[in-house]
Amino acid sequence: MVAAIASAASAFLIDGMVACQLMVVAFALVALRTQFSPKFKTFAFTFWVLAFVFQALAAPSLFQSWPIGPAKDFIAPLIQIIMFGMGTTLCLNDFARVLLVPKSVAVGMLLQFSVMPIMGWILAKMFGFSPEIAAGVVLIGACPGGVASNVIAYLARGDVALSVTMTACSTLMSPIMTPLAMWILVGSIVDLSFSKMMWSILEITIAPIVLGLLVSYLFEWLKWRGPWLDRFLSGIAMFAICIVIGIIVAQSRDELFVIGPALMVVAMLHNAIGFALGYFGAKACRLDETTSRTISIEVGMQNGGMASALAMSVLNSPQAAMASAIFGPWMSISGSILASWWRQRPTAVGESAYLPAVLASGSDGIGIEE
Fold first, then answer.
1. What are residue 69's DSSP bridge partners?
2. pLDDT 10s digits, 20-29
3. What range defines the domain where residue 277 resides?
4. If we measure between CA atoms, which residue out of 151, 81, 181 comes closest to residue 357?
């Protein structure tokens, strides 16, 4: 049914690009409205993304070539800006906290880098995707968590401190674990260099995070740190990921009309399986309810921006990047729905008292997940 609806929508779009422009205006207005609504704030990023997606469908040339060069060449720098923003929300205690909860972090990392890439490979096989699109689905599953999972963990009454630690640890592990998963699962069907992907992750993700961490401590020392910085960086990050998704949609516009509906179904299945196996996997390891919710969210939500950058810079494939363009917005929607459901069911432990800067600032950090 989902595929049929999406196919009908695709046909409608092909016949009338004016309708796309109307959708751009509609989604932008809804995004502005939800941006300032405490109840629906977490959906604002999704509506902004949809506005950019429809704009890319209606006028792809806006996201294909700019006066300063091809738009696709700016995906990696935009992701670096996002990762820099993520680095400013972290501190060394976020990494050291793994010593306090080693079992929880170990379970989370094991599920994160096994369940999601393997399920991506299984679903890609089931739907008969081409090698490049299949690689894109596996790639999004092999990427670490992003800051949006920290926001969702807070809303779901999870352990936010654990969520931040898991995001930090999975990101640090990604230069080895992401290329390893890709090499094992799709190395035989696409041209893939383990070392190139590893260095690309270090350059695109790890280096900007370290720089952001250093700048955060510098601002703290100079007493320049305040909510304004977190709000500013969150807004920049949200705008950057919208631009990235717009570029990807424009690069693969015609293919999206054909493969988009199937990718949407795979995104829903992949995300739901990740949430379910993350939760019940944690329960099977005798972890408490709060921790199980946190691991579920971390496993189910990946860093879509990183996947987009790697698809374009390492795989050199706009087709491989299509998966992250579709998976990212859907993860925001499903994560918010899951968080709302769990929030109505308090845990015995209660909410974590820890609140990272991106939440304390009042900004919607959901804008920097992908």
1. 66
2. 777 888 888 8
3. 72-368
4. 151
